[in-house]
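step 3/5: co-fold with adenosine-5'-triphosphate
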Amino acid sequence: MKYIVAIIQPDKLDAALDELEKREVHLVTVSNVMGRGRQKGSAEVYRSHKEIGSLLRKTKLEIAVNENFVETTIEAIIESTRTGQTGDGKIFVIDLEECVRIRTKERGGVAIG
Ligand SMILES: Nc1ncnc2c1ncn2[C@@H]1O[C@H](COP(=O)(O)OP(=O)(O)OP(=O)(O)O)[C@@H](O)[C@H]1O
Ligand SMILES: [Mg+2]
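step 4/5: write tokens
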């Protein structure tokens, strides 16, 4: 199991969710966050996101998936969010040790989706 964390441009959220749905990745956590990348906020003002100090508004997606959905999830996010410009975002893939559905007490892969 992997925990996929993607930091994307807020205006790409709808497209990302659509593309994930098309590939049957339905379960997701979304947060509004702030961050900075290599340009430290300076080179993205043209993208009209409000700056707070050196931080820009970003959107974070968190998706827990079984191994057979890792690549399709990464592809869906890239395909729906990539413009080729700085600030497109980043995807982190983290080993996920356990997942527990609280209602049923199911664990592991069966509890993920
Ligand atoms: N190493 C990192 N650790 C934590 N968060 C990061 C890291 N790199 C990027 N982020 C987050 O991702 C957001 C988008 O990063 P961004 O796309 O600007 O990456 P970058 O490395 O600067 O690449 P690019 O040169 O394409 O802009 C950042 O604002 C920050 O929230
Ligand atoms: Mg950057």
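step 5/5: annotate
The first strand starts at residue 2 and ends at 8.
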